[in-house]
Amino acid sequence: MKKVMIKDLYNLEETLAAPAFEGCTYPWELLPKIKDYILLIGPTLPEEKFGKKGEDVWIAKSAKIAPTAYINGPCIIDEEAEIRHCAFIRGNAIVGKKAVVGNSTELKNVILFNQVQVPHYNYVGDSILGFKAHMGAGSITSNVKSDKTPVKVHGDLEIETGLKKFGAMLGDGVEVGCNSVLNPGTVIGRNSSIYPVSCVRGVVPEESIYKSSLEISKKY
């Protein structure tokens, strides 16, 4: 059984975006709501922990921000997160506690749960990455189909999302190998690992090792 519901993929205690998931069944339902959610909760964040930097950008005082990073709002960067040299946050981004957004990594319309790492030359767009998910150097989410039609999730059943922009849903603890491409509508189950230089589409079951579309094995 390929599990693609929010309850199958994420520990909602590991993100300040948890209330946004209420009333949703599938995680990609949140993608059109990220901007409004940030604008709703940003002004309510405790002033002793967060500072407002520019228009609609809230950054925890304990976060480390490189002077060369570019951060556009709406955006929230949670406590002890690290935004490194030349990171490019285009907006509509929630970066979790102790998360790492690294050198030349680009974010757009994303939720990164606590302790996510996208540390080297990553593009993450229209995606949600679960607790402690990690993307190896050069791995990216492709978020628009070449024919520009709405994205479908191909699992046990084909699910229409109605979204033209939809990158990938990574469950808690997912490891993505270097230089991999996650095609639009990819869903990777909890604690699964993707081999380097993979081209992934569809649903990868939890606790799996993805070597190719024809070779997916259970971890244990």
Can you tell me about this structure?
With 220 residues, the protein is mainly β. It is 5% helix and 37% strand. Strands 1, 2, 4, 5, 7, 8, 10, 12, 17, 20 and 23 form an eleven-stranded mixed beta sheet that branches. It has a five-stranded mixed beta sheet with strand order 13-18-21-24-25, with no helix packed on it. Strands 3-6-9-11 form a four-stranded parallel beta sheet, with no helix packed on it. The radius of gyration is 16 Å and the shape is globular. The two termini are 16 Å apart. The relative contact order is 0.14.
Beta-sheet strand percentage?
Answer: 35-45%
| Structural class estimated from helices and strands | mainly beta
The chain-level mean pLDDT equals 96
- Please count the beta strands (DSSP E, at least 2 residues each): 25
Head-to-tail CA distance between termini: 16 Å
Low-confidence stretches: none
How large is the count of helical segments? 2
Share of helix, binned: under 10%
Major pleated sheet = 11 strands, mixed
Order of helical and strand elements = HHEEEEEEEEEEEEEEEEEEEEEEEEE
- Radius of gyration, taken over Cα atoms and rounded to an integer in Å: 16 Å
The geometry reads as: globular
Oligomeric nature of the chains: single chain
Task: Offer a quick outline of the entry.
With 220 residues, the chain is mainly beta.
Task: Name a few traits of the molecule.
220 residues; mainly beta; five-stranded mixed sheet; 2 helices; globular
